[in-house]
Write a structure and sequence with these properties.
Layout: E1 5-8, E2 18-24, E3 31-32, E4 37-42, E5 47-51, E6 56-61, E7 68-70, E8 74-80, H1 87-102, H2 106-119, H3 153-156, H4 170-179, H5 197-211, H6 222-225, H7 251-266, E9 269-277, H8 279-291, H9 299-313, E10 319-323, E11 330-334, E12 340-342, E13 344-346, E14 349-351, E15 354-355, H10 363-379, E16 392-396, E17 415-419, E18 423-429, E19 432-446, H11 452-467, H12 469-475
Parallel strand pairs: 12-16, 16-17
Antiparallel strand pairs: 1-8, 2-4, 2-7, 3-6, 4-5, 6-8, 9-19, 10-11, 12-15, 13-14, 17-19, 18-19
Cofactor: (R)-lipoate
Protein name: Dihydrolipoamide acetyltransferase component of pyruvate dehydrogenase complex
Family: Belongs to the 2-oxoacid dehydrogenase family.
Length: about 475
């Protein structure tokens, strides 16, 4: 019989090493073509469709929705189109594939991936280019109401000759090892008998139930409310309080946490700020909106235009501090261009899309890019290339109703400009007190790349442009 082609979860770019399987777009027994989307996965950057590099019949789906998969581990097994199979052979192949999923060597994974690129399309992610051919596609069984067809027993049951427990990921093995769970004693509930994280956690819960001491006495009044006392296992040892929730740190939150921790630990940052009279900018935009209501840039786009102007005048803030090629000295790397990142809050967490070559765009063009990338980020559809590669970040935290913030630099950049809310405040104009539209600008910068004079000069440049937008835009 023909051996199935095992497609490994491909490199998703930007240094990402894992992804959460959101949804399968195919089922076991389906016939698929080259580059056909087979699954939706959510990385720490965005939601993407993964295409198949092979044509043929789906034999095994290595994972279930909600499971976190490591890059380089099996994602799907596909029998070549027209391959003749028999049940024992397919079961044996399933067992071998499951064994490989336990602990494939990095070299083997890399070789397999290279072979996939030669044999298949090379289309790692939709829109990233393809070099292969195409194959036929049809569904062998209808799917009703979104329910996948039943899987043949030969494809879902592990082989009797299997010598090692089929484990879906290194994380599962680690949880089992730390909890003292014997994997060989568990029956996997995943595809092809794979042992899933939930199987190990269920075994651990059984152990705790068997060994936990009797419940602690309830606090005064608890019994009258009819609430059960918390068990010892649910009490935090440091505070003595009951643990209400446990939230795994993954996806966007995991990347943000790592990035912010590295920024604070490596960058000697300093902060400068200034209050700015934004009345003229607000009035200028209002006048433009009266004349052209459908194509007037937002205030953030105007500020972004002033930022790119400032970075051209003070290029030290558009750099990166890094190790030199010799590995012993440090260097400051400057860029021929500005990739302006802007912080965008989404349901998945904070992401930073970047506008490529922002210094070449007008305020209206910057506004269009901000709107386009914001929508992609909110929908989880932004490509990895659109969520990385920034050289400077603009953070509009005024949308949250706050005036200022000492933000954390978006590593490996060297500066970030924060914009607070624009509010009415008393202001002295020509020696008299007046009510003006005032905004606070905050610049956090890496003190290794420049001193306060440069940081202050840049901040003042942006502030002056906001206070005198007509002359500033005329000069740009």
């Amino acid at each position: 019989m023909s051996e199935p082609n095992v497609f490994l979860l491909p490199d998703l770019g930007e240094g990402l090493t894992e992804a959460e399987l959101v949804n399968w777009l195919v089922a076991v027994g389906d016939e698929i073509r080259v580059d056909q989307p087979i699954a939706e996965v959510e990385t720490a950057k965005s939601l993407v469709e993964v295409p198949s590099p092979y044509a043929g019949t789906v034999a095994i789906l290595h994972g279930e929705p909600g499971q976190t998969l490591d890059v380089g581990k099996p994602l799907i097994s596909v029998l070549p189109a027209g391959a003749v199979t028999d049940a024992p052979a397919v079961a044996e192949t399933s067992a071998e594939t499951a064994k490989e999923a336990v602990a494939p060597s990095s070299e083997a994974a890399a070789n397999t991936y290279r072979e996939e690129e030669k044999a298949g399309s090379g289309n790692v992610l939709i829109g990233y280019g393809t070099s292969g051919g195409h194959g036929p596609t049809r569904r062998t069984r209808a799917r009703r109401d979104g329910i996948a067809p039943a899987k043949p027993a030969s494809l879902t049951q592990p082989a009797a000759a299997e010598l090692r427990p089929a484990v879906s990921s290194p994380l599962v093995r680690r949880i089992a090892r730390e909890g003292g769970v014997d994997l060989s004693s568990l029956k996997g509930t995943g595809a092809a008998g794979l042992i899933m994280r939930r199987d190990v956690e269920a075994a651990l819960a059984g152990q705790r139930s068997a060994t936990a001491p009797a419940p602690l006495a309830t606090q005064p009044g608890a019994a009258t409310l009819g609430e059960p006392a918390a068990s010892y296992a649910d009490i935090d040892s440091r505070t003595g309080l009951a643990i209400a929730t446990r939230t795994p740190v993954k996806g966007v939150r995991k990347v943000v946490a790592a990035n912010m921790s590295r920024s604070r630990s490596e960058i000697p940052e300093a902060t400068v700020w200034v209050d700015v009279d934004a009345t003229a900018l607000v009035e200028t935009r209002a006048d433009l909106k009266k004349r052209n209501p459908d194509h007037t840039p937002g205030l953030l786009a105007f500020i972004a235009r002033f930022v790119t102007s400032g970075l051209k005048r003070f290029p030290e803030l558009n750099t990166r501090f890094q190790d030199a090629a010799d590995g012993e000295t440090k260097e400051i790397v400057g860029f021929d261009g500005i990739n302006l990142g802007f912080a965008a809050q989404t349901d998945r967490g904070l992401v930073v899309p970047s506008i490529r070559n922002a210094e070449k765009l007008s305020a209206r063009e910057l506004d269009a890019e901000i709107r386009r990338l914001s929508k992609l980020a909110r929908d989880g559809k932004a490509a990895p290339a659109e969520l990385g590669g920034g050289t400077f970040t603009l953070n509009n935290y005024g949308v949250f109703g706050v005036d200022g913030s000492a933000a954390i630099i978006n590593y490996p950049e060297v500066a970030i400009l924060g914009v607070g809310r624009i509010i009415d405040r008393p202001w002295v104009v020509d020696g008299e007190l007046a009510v003006r539209k005032v905004v606070e600008l905050t610049l956090v910068f890496d003190h290794r790349v420049c001193d306060g004079g440069t940081a202050g000069g840049f901040l003042r440049h942006v502030a002056d442009a906001i206070e005198n937008p007509a002359s500033a835009l005329a000069d740009l």
